[in-house]
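2024-03-11 09:14:02 DEBUG pipeline.ingest accepted 1 chain
2024-03-11 09:14:02 DEBUG pipeline.ingest length=100
2024-03-11 09:14:03 DEBUG pipeline.predict start
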Amino acid sequence: MAKAGRGDYDFVKDDENIEQKTQYLIKSAITPLLKDFKITFSGKAYPTLPKADKLGFVKKNERFELLIFLDKAFVDGASSEEVKIEYYDSFANQKYSVNV
């Protein structure tokens, strides 16, 4: 179940100290995360993979990739699109918005 929800899990052998593994799992459970991603363009909509609203959450120090499929006009600079990236930071308990 932890794997399906992108959580952490661990096994404790008979000769291992359960306290260390429990501390690790508790820290992991309260780790800050980013969620509620939204990417908007001032003009046309560009598809992303995965869809930004389906990304879920990103844990602290976790790498993630988001592909944005742009057209030639955007890449060549012929388009004057503004890109806005929004997300929620659970550590700061605040929503952020960045214009690119």
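2024-03-11 09:14:41 DEBUG pipeline.report Residues 1-30 form one domain.
2024-03-11 09:14:41 DEBUG pipeline.predict end
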